[in-house]
Structure formats: C-alpha cells, structure tokens
Design brief:
By secondary structure, the chain is mainly alpha-helical. It is built from 18 helices and no strands. It folds into two domains: 237 residues, no CATH class; 138 residues, no CATH class. Helices cover 71% and strands 0% of the residues. α4 packs parallel to α11, α9 packs antiparallel against α10 and α15 packs across α16.
C-alpha cells in the first residue's frame, strides 16, 4: 500500500513539542551566529532607554507644570476671587464716606477726571509691561542660542577627549571632569552667573582637563576648551538679569493704582445691587488679567523652574550628554571613578580616579600626578621654601665662620653632602635630597660624620625637613624610603610653585656639582 505524498504547502499544526523544538533550533542558530542574538538585545536596550527618557521628560514636564500653576495660575485665581467678593463692599464703603454733592459729582463727572486718570495709568502700565515682556523674551531667546552652542561645544570636547585620551590611564579622569562640568556648571541655572564666573581656577573642571592632557605645552584640546569657555561666557551673560527687581515692583504698583480707581467709579454708579454684581464680575476678570500678565513677566524674569524657562530643553540636552558620557565610560574598560569622589574637589582625585599618586608604586606605569593643590597646601609650600632659604643662609654663615669663606653656598652644600655617605648615596628611585634637605641637615646641628653615625644624621636631616619623628625601631630602610617618597611626592605636585622649587633645587645641585 502506497501512502500519498504530502504537499509542499502542507503545514503541521503547532504543538507544544514543536514550539519547544523551534525555540531550541533558534537558540542553537543564535549560538553559531552571535549577530542574530545581539540585534534583539540591542533593540531591547533601545526600548529601555526610550522608556527612561520618556519617564524623565514626563517628570520634568510635570514638575514644571506644577511650579507654573503654583506661581502663575494660583495667584490669578486668587486675585479674581478677591475682586469678585470685595468689589461691591469696597464701593459701598467709599459711597458711605462721601456726601450727596460728591456722589453727584462722581455720577456726572463732566470733566471726566476719573476716566482720564484711568486712561493715563493704563497707558503707562501697558507701555512698561510691553517693554519688559519684550526684553525678557529676547533674553530667553539669547539663552536658548547660548545653550545650544555650549552643549555642541561640550560634545565636541567629549569626542576630542575620546580621540586623544582613549586607552590612557587618565581617560576616566577626563570623563569625570566633563561630568563635573555638566553637573556643577551647565545645570546650575539657579546660581547667579557672576558667582559661577568668579569660582576659583583650581575648582574649574575645564582647567583640570587641560592639565591632565598637557605636558609642558597646551594639548590639542586647547582650542576646543577655549571655544567652550567662550560659549560658557555667552550663556552666563545671557542668563544675567538685566531687568531689575525694582522694575517688577513698579509694575505691581501701577497695576494696583489702576485697579483701585475702579471701586471709586463703582461708588458713583452704585444705584442697585444688580449693577454692582455685574461690575464685580467685570472687575474680577480685570484683576485676573492684570495678575496674569505680571506673573508671566515675573516667570520670564526668573532663571528657572517654569514652562516659560529653558529647564526642559536643557534637561533633555544634558540627559543626552550624560548618557553618552556613561556609555563611553563603560566602553573604555578602565576602572571608573569612585562615586564617593563625585562630591570632592577635583584636586583630591587622582588622574585615573583611584588613590593618590605614589611615585614608588606607580613607577613605570605612566600615571600622572594630581591636579594643582589647594590654597592651604600652596601656603605650606611657601612657608617651607622660606624655611629652606633661612636654613641655607644659616648653613652659609656657619660654614663661613668655620673658615670656608672662599666657597659659595652651593659648593658648601655640595661639600656637606659629599661628607655624609648616607646622604651622598641614595638608593635608586628614592627621594633625592636637594638643597633644602642639606640646609636642614646643616642647620640641625649635625656636623661631622665622626660625631654621629651617617645613617642617624641622614634620618635627622630628613625628619627635620619633613616634620617627621625619627625612624621607629624595626622599620626597615625600604619601608622608610617608601614613606618618605610618598610624602615628598605629595608636596611636589605639578603646580607653578612646585615647578619653581624643583627647578631651583636642580639648578643649585647642577651648579654645585
């Protein structure tokens, strides 16, 4: 018996077993073709990112809408309700204070004094309010242009930093400084621009980026940083308040004077309760319109917080920039900067975002030193330099008194250095003692090698210069050398004063040798 052949168009019904077999086959195919599995994963990540972005936009818009309703809509409603409730009472109270002749004059008003008064006050209010609105709107437009330019320059800096620093140990530090710039500068709409511009240079992330990417001369990112600083200056100049707070107060005063004239007209025409009711409704709309115009002008005058400001657009641009920073930081493969260091000043973070620079542990790794020190450390270095100069003068005076009048100070220090074996021969990679250490050693009363052992003389000189207690019992020479190397490297950070001191020491050593 021959079975009939199946048609090619025949499709087996879907069963749980066939579905499982199909899923297993798809998984096996995806294992042999990684690209096919990466596409759905990428799409899922894109959907997750879109959902996050939409949630963030919704949260920003909700916050701005609530702030605008509280600062614009609520005062408008309150002013309208107060005008509706108290217009008739105020009109009747003014009518009770006037006599019959005054009421007749108000009803006739042949000279139309009250109408002319209202016309002049209304014209003044319209002119000032219109000019204020126009000026503040132009300021908002300038802020938009400046923000778009600054964010574009910040993205250019991010791309150029990636091209220059990618694969280097300080790449994470450069990304961290850009993140600090976005967080502490670009997002700070509620901080006065003059205060942002007057910040210390050591707290400037852009200067830190220039520092870690430059060796001797400015790096290739100098032009981008310069353009970013110019865009930042335009943004801060556009955000500076040019319309004074006194102008806002004068607008409120003119609006109040104009509104107070209407109950006077109502007192002259208060013939019946129905007329006062109609006038109360119209006066309520008039009060609401005046307050609405004033609150919109004040919203434009504010720096941030409402739908009339640049908060929403700025948050969207900054969100994209921060997302790109995060993606580049993850793709670099380097250890990220510690979250605890996000609130610390840039000078407390090492170039690769880990622990402070150690010249012994980091020898040959290519790691750079820290950013410029704080003001207290600079003052400490200055005091130390003055102390070293005083000790050098004391050493020169003591040597001159001992009969070495024909020698200069560098030669005396060189002779003193060569007279101590432990000071003259330092281990390779250790802290080379310069003029300051020798001067401290000479001024501390350590004389000839015969009076004290050379090792104790060197320890006394270094301890005097560094402000350390003498070496402890059981401490090896290698441990003590590493400790002194850390302390010396901490005080010799690459700054203007540190470079001057290091250059002076090397020059004196070269002259003495």
């Amino acid at each position: 018996m021959r079975w009939p052949l199946r048609s090619r168009k025949h499709v087996e019904p879907a069963t749980p077993e066939s579905t499982l077999r199909l899923e297993a086959a798809n998984a096996a195919a995806a294992a042999f073709a990684p690209g096919t599995a990466a596409v759905p994963r990428r799409r899922r990540l894109e959907r997750v990112e879109r959902k996050r972005a939409s949630k963030r936009r919704f949260a920003i818009r909700t916050t701005q809408a609530i702030n605008t309703l509280m600062r614009v809509a609520l005062p408008t409603i309150v002013a309208s309700v107060l005008g509706l409730l108290y217009f008739d009472n105020v009109s009747l109270y003014i009518r009770s204070l006037l006599d019959v002749g005054a009421i007749g004059m108000l009803m006739a008003d042949e000279a139309q004094f009250v109408q002319n008064f209202l016309t002049v006050i209304g014209l003044l209010f319209s002119i000032l309010a219109g000019n204020a609105y126009s000026a503040l709107y132009e300021q908002q437009e300038a802020i938009y242009f400046a923000l778009f330019q600054e964010v574009s320059e910040a993205k250019s800096l991010l791309e150029q930093t990636t091209l220059v620093c990618q694969g280097r140990p300080f790449y994470q530090a450069a990304l961290h400084y850009i993140r600090l710039y976005v967080k502490r500068d670009l997002r700070q709409l509620d901080v006065p621009p003059a205060q942002l511009l007057s910040s210390k240079p050591m707290d400037d992330p852009l200067e830190s980026i220039m520092y870690i990417t430059s060796v001797g001369v400015p790096s290739v990112v100098y032009e981008t940083v310069k353009n970013l600083r110019q865009a930042r200056g335009y943004r801060l100049g556009a955000m500076q308040r040019k319309f004074p707070a006194l102008g806002i107060g004068l607008l409120y005063l003119l609006a109040m004077i104009e509104l107070l004239a209407f109950p006077l007209l109502g007192a002259g025409s208060a013939g019946s309760a129905s007329i006062l009711t109609l006038q109360s409704i119209l006066f309520a709309f008039l009060c609401g319109a005046h307050v609405l115009v004033l609150r919109i002008i004040q919203e434009l005058w504010q720096a941030s917080g409402g739908v009339f400001n640049v908060d929403e657009v700025l948050q969207q641009m900054v969100f994209g920039l921060e997302e790109e920073l995060e993606l580049r930081s993850r793709a670099s493969g380097l250890p990220p900067v510690s979250p605890l260091s996000a609130s610390l000043p840039p000078s407390s973070i090492r170039a690769d975002g880990l622990t402070p620079w150690d010249p012994v542990a980091d020898r040959g790794t290519g790691r750079m030193q820290q950013p410029p020190p704080q003001q207290s450390e600079i003052d400490e270095l200055r005091a130390e330099l003055r102390d070293a100069i005083a000790r050098a003068e004391a050493a020169e005076a003591a040597s001159a008194a001992s009969g070495a009048r024909g020698l200069s100070a560098p030669q005396i220090m060189r002779r003193e250095l060569s007279s101590q074996p432990a000071l003259a021969s330092q281990p390779t990679g250790g802290p080379a003692l310069g003029t300051e250490q020798v001067a401290a050693h000479h001024a501390s009363g350590v004389g000839v090698a015969a009076e004290q052992p050379a090792e104790h003389s060197a320890a006394a000189a270094e301890s005097t210069w560094l402000g350390l207690p003498p070496a402890q019992d059981g401490e090896s020479a290698e441990e003590r050398r590493r400790r002194l190397a850390r302390l010396i490297s901490k005080r010799r950070r690459v700054s203007l004063l540190g470079r001057m001191r290091l250059g002076m020491m090397r020059a004196v050593q070269a002259i003495g040798s």
